[in-house]
Amino acid sequence: MDQGSIARILRQVSGGEDEIQQLQKALLDYLDENTETDASLVFSRKFYIAQWFRDTTMETEKAIKSQKDEDSSEGTHHAKDVETTGQIMHRAESRKTFLRSIIKTAPSQFSTLKMNSDTVDYEDACLIVRYLASMRSFAQSFDIYLTQ
């Protein structure tokens, strides 16, 4: 991955969100800007929103399950684990709120949410997609699958 380009995109995208959320917004804005030239981008945009919402939900469920497993196996409650789970829950809720706000936005309001059209081009969009895909659990455990 080209970390320099990712850092440049993050600097260009405004917002106080976390890194993943900024990249998601940049990609969604790029897809929205180009829907007039390629109708399939409307489907892509909806697919990414749905997939990210699902990933966030799964991440939350895994955090809750892992905390329950640790609590039952050790019998004690660790403040560090609670803090980590709390942070995951907070981040998940902020991502879900962001995605809900994108879903609820009417097509006529997209122009008010758009950033400068020169912020993300096709190559940057491809890089963002690869970067976000590499953050998914399957991509992170791909070596284990190959080894098995």
UniProtKB/TrEMBL annotation:
InterPro entries: Scc2/Nipped-B (IPR033031). GO terms for molecular function: chromatin binding; cohesin loader activity. One of its GO terms (cellular component) is Scc2-Scc4 cohesin loading complex. GO terms for biological process: brain development; chromatin looping; digestive tract development; embryonic viscerocranium morphogenesis; establishment of mitotic sister chromatid cohesion; establishment of protein localization to chromatin; heart morphogenesis; regulation of gene expression. Residues 61-83 have a biased composition (Basic and acidic residues). Residues 61-84 are annotated as: Disordered. PANTHER family: NIPPED-B-LIKE PROTEIN (PTHR21704:SF18), NIPPED-B-LIKE PROTEIN DELANGIN SCC2-RELATED (PTHR21704). This is Nipped-B-like. It comes from Phaethon lepturus (White-tailed tropicbird). The lineage of its organism: Eukaryota, Metazoa, Chordata, Craniata, Vertebrata.
